[in-house]
Design brief:
461 residues; alpha/beta; FAD/NAD(P)-binding domain; 2 domains; seven-stranded mixed beta sheet; five-stranded parallel beta sheet; 14 helices; binds flavin-adenine dinucleotide
Length: 461
């Protein structure tokens, strides 16, 4: 961390909002006007809409993340977690990856810590579930699913096989529907390489407490997405929830009970709980309360945006809904970050703040290779697209939205190669314990067992 006489703009979180806001500030700032410091426990930003495709092996995991130090060469990037904010002293406490926590003074603050998986106290969930918020989880899921195929192929125990080949996904929004679509596609593809695992041996189950899936694309396309997944053999249970999953024994409210080694939790997100220690005004669901100018209510030097903020939806409000809030998605996060960056510069220079207002442009979702749904808003019309065309739109949109040309090119190269070469179906689960084999080799060897003399061997047999 540098000590500097210049004012410090502290950006807490280097995700969508943090990365784009820092880039915008650095672009608009005069040379030496301020120090921009980005603090994040990870050294990279994750493009979350690509996590399902990374889980399916269509994109290399490294191409889904953007190294912060490379894309923000003029910023000070610190690896650590901001744990508290002292507003009176304008000081943040940072817990680095290693070592003692330290204090970091700031003049302007951007709160962009995003969201975490929203969970409930369901017996067994913490031990058995896996989320879908980070690249680690996405690749962990891929390895785990392929490992289940290896396990099922290696045993004749019917109960073990059935448990290994049953996959339960809880939550049918964007993240859940896309993840089950991609993973089911990949697993059934992979099954063709096994002798004793058939495509139809696998059971995929999607559960949601709501009465529909993919609410983001509207009821008609959501219904199409459901029918489409069902036509591929996915069992979908709506208006029900998971009561427990102790030791992988899944019990649903509707009475269904199955044993499963794979429970994927994609039932929504909640604002980062660390916000509770920041002393900022929070809304009823724990978001930082901001004005339409993205300034935290009651402050003139703190801004917030993205999944951790409740930002008024001015388009909805002008249309007569006084309670309209921006939904937590990348479409808003990206655009809010740019307005926020401009407002930080204006705030620093004493100029007026800009209002954030954005009309929904629609949504695209991929459901596996060549399958998808899309809803595009053009003026007053909503254009609905499904199937292969929607899938191309999904790829085109997200491919171009991926930050930096370096990553865009790598993603398009991954997709192009996948058109000619078959999908990788290797499980590298052992990467999670890379030292295990070496440890076994380096352990002191047990004393050698003396060979028995020939005569004794004959007696023993
Ligand atoms: C699987 C999945 C698929 C999605 N698909 C779509 C889609 O198709 N379309 C769409 O519009 N949206 C999609 N989204 C939502 C979109 O990705 C989010 O809305 C967006 O990432 C929000 O950006 P953010 O900056 O608020 O949070 P994030 O991008 O999550 O960034 C938050 C950052 O804060 C850091 N952080 C956390 N705690 C601390 C701390 N204490 N101190 C410092 N840093 C901290 C985190 O490490 C992270 O880097 C998807 C999300 C998921 C999970």
């Amino acid at each position: 961390m540098s000590t500097t006489e210049r004012p410090r703009i502290l950006v807490v979180g280097g995700g969508y909002v943090g990365l784009y806001a820092a880039r915008r500030i650095l672009k608009k700032m005069r040379y030496g006007e301020a120090t921009v410091t980005v603090v994040d426990p990870r050294s990279y930003m994750t493009y979350q809409p690509f996590l399902p495709e990374a889980a399916a092996g269509s994109i290399s995991p490294r191409h889904v993340v953007v190294p912060l130090r490379r894309v923000l060469p003029k910023a000070e990037v610190l690896t650590g977690r901001v744990t508290t904010i002292d507003q009176d002293r304008k000081v943040a406490t940072v817990a680095p990856l290693v070592g003692e926590a330290y204090e970091l003074p700031f003049d302007y603050l951007v709160v962009a810590m995003g969201a975490v998986s929203r969970t409930f106290p369901i017996p067994g969930l913490a031990e058995q579930g896996i989320g879908m918020k980070g690249i680690e989880e996405s690749i962990g899921l891929r390895n785990h699913v392929l490992e289940q195929l290896d396990k099922a192929d290696s045993t004749t125990d019917e109960d073990v096989r059935r448990k290994a080949l049953t996959f339960v996904f809880v939550g049918g929004g964007f993240a859940g529907a896309e993840t089950i679509g991609e993973v089911e596609d990949m697993a059934r593809d992979a099954a063709t390489y096994y002798t004793s695992v058939k495509r139809e041996d696998m059971r995929f189950i999607l559960v949601d407490a709501a009465d529909k899936i993919l609410p983001e694309v509207g009821p008609k396309l959501g219904a199409y997405g459901k029918e489409h997944l069902e036509s591929r053999g996915v069992e979908i249970y709506l208006s029900t929830s998971m009561d427990s999953c102790v030791d992988g024994h899944v019990v649903l409210k509707n009475g269904l009970e199955v044993d499963s080694s794979t429970i994927v939790w994609t039932a929504g997100v909640k604002p980062n709980p660390a916000l509770a220690r920041f002393g900022l005004p929070l809304g009823p669901r724990g978001h930082v309360d901001t004005s339409e100018k993205l300034q935290v209510q009651g402050t003139d030097y703190i801004w917030a945006a993205g999944d951790n903020a409740q930002v008024p939806d001015m388009v909805g409000r002008r249309a007569g809904n006084p309670n309209a809030w921006c939904p937590p998605n990348a479409q808003h996060a990206l655009r809010q970050a740019k307005v926020l960056g401009d407002n930080v510069i204006s705030g620093m220079r004493g100029f007026p703040q800009k209002e954030y207002s954005h009309a929904n442009k629609g949504a695209v979702a991929g459901l596996g290779l060549h399958k998808g749904v899309a809803m595009i808003v053009v003026g007053k019309f909503k254009i609905k697209v499904k199937g292969r065309l929607a899938w191309y739109m999904h790829r085109g949109y997200h491919g171009m939205a991926m930050p930096t040309w370096n990553r865009k090119i790598r993603i398009f190269a991954d997709w192009t190669l996948a058109m000619f070469l078959k999908r990788e179906v290797v499980s590298l689960g052992a990467m999670e314990t890379p030292r295990e084999e070496f440890y076994e080799a380096a352990k002191p060897s047990p004393a050698p067992v003396a060979a028995k003399p020939e005569g004794e061997k004959a007696k023993a047999s």
